[in-house]
Amino acid sequence: MTGRHPLSGPEPDPARDAGHAEPPPRVGFFTDTSVCIGCKACEVACKEWNAIPEDGLSLTGMSYDNTQGLGASTWRHVAFIEQQSPAPEGRTQLPLLDGQFTTPTPPDGVAGQSAASGAAGELRWLMSSDVCKHCTHAACLDVCPTGSLFRTEFGTVVVQEDICNGCGYCVPACPYGVIEQRPGDGRAFKCTLCYDRLGAGQEPACAKACPTQSIQFGPLEELRERAALRVGQLRDSGVAGARLYGHEDHDGVGGDGAFFLLLDEPEVYGLPPAPVVTTRDLPAMWKHAGAAALALLGGMAASFALPAVVRRRDSR
Length: 316
Prior knowledge:
Blueprint: H1 14-17, E1 27-32, H2 41-50, E2 76-84, E3 114-118, E4 121-131, H3 139-143, E5 149-151, E6 157-159, H4 170-173, E7 180-181, E8 188-189, H5 195-199, H6 205-209, E9 215-219, H7 220-236, E10 243-245, E11 258-262, H8 282-315
Parallel strand pairs: 1-11
Antiparallel strand pairs: 1-9, 2-4, 3-4, 5-6, 7-8, 10-11
GO biological process, one term: cellular respiration
Keywords: 4Fe-4S, Iron, Iron-sulfur, Membrane, Metal-binding, Repeat, Transmembrane, Transmembrane helix
Cofactor: [4Fe-4S] cluster
């Protein structure tokens, strides 16, 4: 890693720099939210394959979302965002509805979106399956004191729960709020991108179960090329809000191993607009702390030396 910042910036081969001698091509997820139908097959497949306990069977009052967000027992989360269609100037806002809707019909040119007309105007659903981003620069991995978190040969980030000591340092370190400690257990859990399946030459369970190919798995560079083409198709068809999120290798986390095609601003989906790896400034912080410590030691030495100098001067 000579000549590169070890905790931020472009990182062409995270697996090799993590110590894997001959790693395969880095793999990841491309989630195309424009074709997500909100079926939650990914959530079910993830729980079944990884034996994740249930985490809420009651309605939350947030549309059809019964889990609300990613957590220790929710490694895939399908979000349902209800909003009015974008205003001419591009702004969006949540609708005030009186409960009267017509039968939902998809708008022209975009699959995966549902729209309904009511007293408050046209309504659309933005549906998206969220997951751990498997960051190029993973702060959770950087702060783990036991080695429970590690970089695999596929470039993904995995938690070994049998090594986790429950310190919780990784929880606030994640800029996406993905990783969490399980109540009553204390250990941290998150998506492993089905590391056991990858080792057997299989795709992750969620991508295997997705009926619309909203979740696509494969070599990361191929996925990025495919995503760029998809954005172009959507914009040519009149979907001006189509954009990619997490695909740039020069962003605050060095690019994500799981990135998304969104139809609105990241904040609408509950994603940070400009995530930054939280350990990026650690070298500078330690440098400043060291300088402050030296200054403090110098001041202490001077405080002890000055009285002796004064006494010698007065005794003359």
